[in-house]
Amino acid sequence: MRVSKAQAQANREHIVETASVMFRERGFDGVGVADLMAAAGFTHGGFYKHFGSKADLMAEASANSLAQSLASAEAMSVQDFIDVYVSRDHRDGRSTGCTMAALCGDAARQSGDLKSAFAEGIERLLHTFGEKYPTAPDAPAGEGRTRMIGLLARAVGAIMLSRACPDDSALADEILAACHAEMSASLPVSEAPEGATQDS
């Protein structure tokens, strides 16, 4: 039976959403097309009606999950971002967490299309939070973006290092706590939480 264009599009979106969860949980190489399609509720052969290759799906799924992460973060302040991102909940929620923390290491070994999807997602996040990053009125142009690049790198690195430790490891929590404290303290007093100190 032929499906309508609307149903075909809905099926494609469901496959992309399923893939974005599975890729974050298992990595790109840990998910086969057959397993992915079964998880989405479709046959293996149906994959190529929607995508030219697994690499095409990887790029689309990554762009989709990066866009979702940005949408959920747009209303946050920089401190809110630190609180949510550098947390045990995020560390343990790999399949629903940030695509950058889950897949940056994998993406570095993938195609230019996939890297472009990551670069666009990172750029959008930097644009959003670079404009929010609190700086002095006379700060040089682009200072907020520069500081946000450093903060984002520390946030992603904190999650990746913590996840590399056993789940019940004290070090996993120590990494998160230390990075959260240092990142919060690096913000100007107007943005940092009560009790945090500004770096000199």
Automatic annotation (TrEMBL):
Per the record, a Pfam family?
TetR_N
Keyword flag DNA-binding: yes
Domain (HTH tetR-type) spans 9-69
The Gene Ontology terms for molecular function here are: DNA binding
Query: Which residue ranges traverse the bilayer?
Result: none
Mind listing where the DNA-binding region sits, in residue ranges?
32-51
Q: Give yes or no: UniProt keyword Methyltransferase.
A: no
Q: Which residues form a coiled coil?
A: none
Which InterPro entries does this UniProt record tie to the protein? Homeodomain-like_sf, HTH_TetR, Tet_transcr_reg_TetR-rel_C_sf
Name the source's superkingdom: Bacteria
The alphabetical list of record keywords is: DNA-binding, Transcription, Transcription regulation
Record SUPFAM superfamilies? Homeodomain-like, Tetracyclin repressor-like, C-terminal domain
The record ties this protein, via Gene3D superfamilies, to:
Homeodomain-like, Tetracycline Repressor, domain 2
Q: Which PROSITE patterns match?
A: HTH_TETR_2
Q: What is this protein called?
A: TetR family transcriptional regulator
State the organism named in the record: Pseudomonas khorasanensis
Q: What is the lineage of its organism?
A: Bacteria, Pseudomonadati, Pseudomonadota, Gammaproteobacteria, Pseudomonadales
